[in-house]
Amino acid sequence: QNLRILNEVSYTIFMQKLKIMLDVRLKNYKNLLNFVVERTEKAFQELLEHRGYKGFTEFDHKSQKLTIHVNSLGDESECKDTKGLSGGERSFSTLSFIISLWQSIDAPFRCLDEFDVFMDLINRRTSLKLLRDFAASHPNEQVILITPQDVSELNSSNDVSIFKLENPR
């Protein structure tokens, strides 16, 4: 009888402690999530500024949706979904968002394939500069860019290696 009561008390105490630990973990998770969202939003806006764009993101965690709003004319009150942008503007905005996410995530490799195929020359130059700056500020990570475009403006150096494939016959 006493052993059964002791087991029930131990079980109750254990469950209470388990709930407290779960609540702490959930609170820490929400704090981390909010931190990543705020950091990503700030970095995204700063990256858009390189082209004079304005924009913001909407993270809806309940429905697991992300909406990116950008105005390429620099007027934040008229930001629209990226579907209303040109191909180059949309590609630059998407790249800006990806780089802003990268700043919150540790990874040994960052890879982008054909990130610049719809970009005009100005958006492409700005994008390459942003990617180069990101790579320079993260020397322990490798950034791999795959593109069919000309990369002659990126010079090889100690921290940049360029591999060019032969043109197809």
From TrEMBL:
Gene Ontology biological-process annotations: double-strand break repair via homologous recombination
Gene Ontology cellular-component annotations: nucleus; site of double-strand break; Smc5-Smc6 complex
InterPro entries linked to this entry: P-loop_NTPase
Highest taxon, organism lineage: Eukaryota
Annotated GO MF terms: ATP binding; damaged DNA binding; single-stranded DNA binding
UniProt keyword list: ATP-binding, Chromosome, Coiled coil, DNA damage, DNA recombination, DNA repair, Nucleotide-binding, Nucleus
Main localization (coarse): nucleus
Compartments where located: Chromosome; Nucleus
SUPFAM superfamilies: P-loop containing nucleoside triphosphate hydrolases
PANTHER family in alphabetical order: STRUCTURAL MAINTENANCE OF CHROMOSOMES 5,6 SMC5, SMC6, STRUCTURAL MAINTENANCE OF CHROMOSOMES PROTEIN 6
Family indicated by similarity: Belongs to the SMC family. SMC6 subfamily.
Name of protein: Structural maintenance of chromosomes protein 6 (Trinotate prediction)
Organism, scientific name: Myxobolus squamalis
Lineage per the UniProt record: Eukaryota, Metazoa, Cnidaria, Myxozoa, Myxosporea
